[in-house]
Amino acid sequence: MHIVTISEMRELEAQAESRYGLTSPILMQNAGKSAADLFEAHLLPTYSLKGLKVLFLIGPGNNGGDGLVMAEHLEHAGVLISLYYWKDKKLVVAGEQQQGPDIHEALKTQIHNADYVIDALLGTGRSRPMPEDMRDLLALVKTEREQRDDLNVVAIDLPSGLNADTGEVDPGSIAANTTITLAYPKLGFFFFPGRDYIGDLAVGDIGLPDDLQPSSKTEMITGQQVHKLLPERPLNSNKGTFGKVMLLCGSLPYPGSAFLAGSSAARVGAGLVTLAVTEKMLPFYASSFHEATFAILPEEDAESFDRANALIEKLAGYKALLVGPGLGQSANTREVILQVLEHLRSLPDKERPRLVIDADGLNNLSALERWWTLLPKDTVITPHPGEMGRLSAGIKVSGGNIERLELARTKAREWQVNLVLKGSCTILANPEGKIRINWWGNPALATAGTGDVLAGMISGFLAQGMPSFDAATAAVYLHTAAADLVNEYMNIERAGLLASDLLPYIPMTLVNTEFSEL
Ligand SMILES: NC(=O)C1=CN([C@@H]2O[C@H](COP(=O)(O)OP(=O)(O)OC[C@H]3O[C@@H](n4cnc5c(N)ncnc54)[C@H](O)[C@@H]3O)[C@@H](O)[C@H]2O)[C@@H](O)CC1
Ligand SMILES: Nc1ncnc2c1ncn2[C@@H]1O[C@H](COP(=O)(O)OP(=O)(O)O)[C@@H](O)[C@H]1O
Ligand SMILES: [K+]
């Protein structure tokens, strides 16, 4: 699904009018109806609309207009509506208007009684800091919600005061429990602090014709999209149909990473997983990972040439190779990686295993000048912000802000790689400048080893013949979907997830894509 900026959204609206006669009032009718439908769908089966008390905060522009249309639909469905017009300081309850000195107290009573408050104050037309009286109004709602968690705030299009392009927020903005955004998600939703203000995200249909598409090259990854990308699983198949993955991962201080990555490759459906390990390490893996096969390499103090060659000899017939997790950063290991890269570059396209480089694979490379010139075509790299900084010659890359977006786009082009810049709202960028952002996931993932799982999943999809950018897209989405399932089924609120908990839930995430709302 496209992600739009404010100017891209305005351009679409202008085109809708000039090419299809879809004027702003028509779009607003569609927007309000769709918001009412989504509101109802999100409530069911917990509540019925009849008798539900909903207070609408109505702003001066079209966002307020959307709110009014939505209110009308909900009123017909039996909702008890009250409306507060911010500009006129006017309250309408059960059709009765109130204005004047007592309005503040009357408003507080409405907020106190409400099941839901609808934030339809400002949308994409926000052009300046909020006036104090708007901040005060939202502060009343915030205070009430702090006192009772059964008060829900639903933002129409976006939480008022959020900058839809950057994710900055006004000091008066309040976090929504749900945001019903119109037509397309806005860029600012994917960056902090904005990301924290969106709550659950629903996307309303404002009736734009299908052939009117935004010019944006930025997409939100959705379950429906991933469902279409997943490899077929024909009846007439065997393990050879689904490809072999080789992993050059794990070393003495970090043995678990090869297990996590290899299991994940198998869990997304790769036909066969092979761990390239030394004889010393073999007993550990053989006892913990029964499904794996092994390529035995010389010990780590052997000549790098011999270590690399032992791997290269086994690589024929493999469709994917993952290099890096837990590999260590000795000069000898770096040499091994360089020789393996050289071999991959020498292979014809059809015979070349597709490469994923993660963790120490990246740390080893970042020490070299123009390291990206050493990569074979179609490589996927998966840095976290620290690794990204090292790869970018020391640029400081912070966690969640919007600067990451242009950095990812620029570097994927310059390096000619499929880049997965990890973190909350992981950003994917390909060499052609296309961006995909992952909305999903939760902070329980911020624990050691989850990156190994992701890298393994990508390699498992590559083994099945998926193009590199799509393999990374599917894996990033399903990795976070698995974390959400773990939290749900293991009753984890925010912390305590182990990377290995993700493994048994990965297959369920593949199935669930068929039923995704987005
Ligand atoms: N234009 C269209 O065709 C459509 C617009 N839609 C809705 O319209 C919204 C955009 O509408 P508008 O462009 O009217 O903009 P908004 O409704 O977001 O706000 C603009 C109004 O708020 C005032 N304003 C701006 N910043 C303010 C601030 N900080 N404090 C107080 N007042 C402020 C402006 O003077 C103007 O009156 C979208 O977010 C969406 O909800 C939808 O109905 C779909 C179609
Ligand atoms: N707060 C968060 N919300 C969502 N996903 C997160 C969050 N923190 C980390 N992740 C994800 O968890 C994984 C962590 O990977 P990484 O930092 O490489 O860890 P490790 O190397 O220890 O396995 C990445 O996929 C990242 O996107
Ligand atoms: K709003």
From TrEMBL:
> Which residues are listed for K(+) binding in this entry?
N63, D119, S160
User: What does the Swiss-Prot or TrEMBL cofactor note state?
Assistant: Binds 1 potassium ion per subunit.
- Alphabetically ordered keywords of this record: ATP-binding, Isomerase, Lyase, Metal-binding, Multifunctional enzyme, NAD, NADP, Nucleotide-binding, Potassium
| Source organism, top-level taxon | Bacteria
Which residues of the sequence carry a binding annotation for AMP? K422, G423, S424, C425, T426, G451
| Cofactor (UniProt) | Mg(2+); K(+)
Q: What is this protein called?
A: Bifunctional NAD(P)H-hydrate repair enzyme
UniProt source species: Dictyobacter alpinus
